[in-house]
């Protein structure tokens, strides 16, 4: 991927080698790959696979995959036959087939690749996910029957909506992949499920540091490094490969929930309200239900209470615990005998962790975070966006910041914001533009939905002016901006 104006993305190297290979997948086999993060020599991890060799020079800067026969999908979203999909740098993904398929893999050699082979379909961890999907489809069918039969009742007696599923488990167990797959499969079956992401490290359809929810009523972008949950799925000033989703986004501004548990709980409460309203307002959305992706949980760290809070706010009636029996046991003990606000029992389902899940290290998550920020402002290889650059006087902007943790009394401050003095320290940070007025109480501003993000390209303290990049044009002065602690300013966007 090479985006004009971004100095830190290395240009394609003419010396890069590529292979054009044919990969044959039997039913339930998966082709797993990672596109290199940088250009340069790459090595392929040897494996017990049917990966052929054969090298031809190429300048293509991404790995491409074409489905040439059969049917295959990426996390629930089908690949079109004979369409060439280009996967950008840093993509880690798998292409799975239920019935057998042939893929043509070309372009840059993946940094690692293997074919996961299963002697019998039931050996694949995906069978459990598929069975769960079918069970959810049954529940959606019943919700539809109920809402057609009892939908006209007064609000308090409304029937329960479709299944509300919370996906949880330890770190790197494949939670987001399961959430994405269930969403893709539901959308493919004609549903319009709501999806909520409560993990601020990832940021669904938004920059990292946020929690968000959106209706997934249309197909997801197979080429998105985040498999359809990334920033390219959100409205922008450019065209989009697939219809965009309209997320409700709240800015947490920190990496981990434990850094400010009360504020995370507040935002989850707000998101829960949005989700309940959307389910009540739209029959198809209500019947399709909800999928909630959660931050990694550890019993030792006391995260059970965090999950319990999310279960309550979203009236969850199915809890899927991926690869973490201890989390399941603790949740069931704490919450197993409770009922949802619709009076339904709560079902706990264990799922095996797929052996394909790759733990992500610091460098990888930093790369994906940077890539998401760049993509938000500049687009991707297929869709170049031109961010609007404006020079603004210090006195024309109202910026608030979260005070340092060390500050006295911080824990007791209900608003958690203070007016920021603009300084060179703000250079290269992204700021959230809040859907509030600069005159609103600080608490209201901090909990307001996010309209979008801007990046501070430069601060000229002598002239008291800032250079600000925004995805669209428009005056910023009447909207409060929030400068939080995360994501940190790794990159100079104007290079
Ligand atoms: N079957 C698979 N084949 C190949 N890669 C996979 C597979 N399942 C998951 N991955 C990859 O493993 C990584 C971790 O998966 P995922 O994000 O689903 O885990 P998670 O439990 O949500 O992580 P976290 O604890 O950080 O929230 C991702 O890069 C994902 O694309």
Automatic annotation (TrEMBL):
**Taxonomic source organism:** Humicola insolens (Soft-rot fungus)
Q: Which residues form the Clp1 P-loop domain?
A: 169-378
Organism domain of life: Eukaryota
Q: What is this protein called?
A: Polynucleotide 5'-hydroxyl-kinase GRC3
The protein's matches in PANTHER family, at most eight in alphabetical order, are given as:
CLEAVAGE/POLYADENYLATION FACTOR IA SUBUNIT CLP1P (PTHR12755), POLYRIBONUCLEOTIDE 5'-HYDROXYL-KINASE CLP1 (PTHR12755:SF6)
A Pfam family that the UniProt record links to this protein: Clp1
Q: How does it assemble?
A: Component of a pre-mRNA cleavage factor complex. Interacts directly with PCF11.
The protein's role, per its UniProt record:
Required for endonucleolytic cleavage during polyadenylation-dependent pre-mRNA 3'-end formation. Polynucleotide 5'-kinase involved in rRNA processing.
This protein's UniProt keywords:
ATP-binding, mRNA processing, Nucleotide-binding, Nucleus
Q: Where does ATP bind?
A: 30, 92, 172-177
Subcellular location, record wording: Nucleus
Q: Does the keyword Transcription regulation apply?
A: no
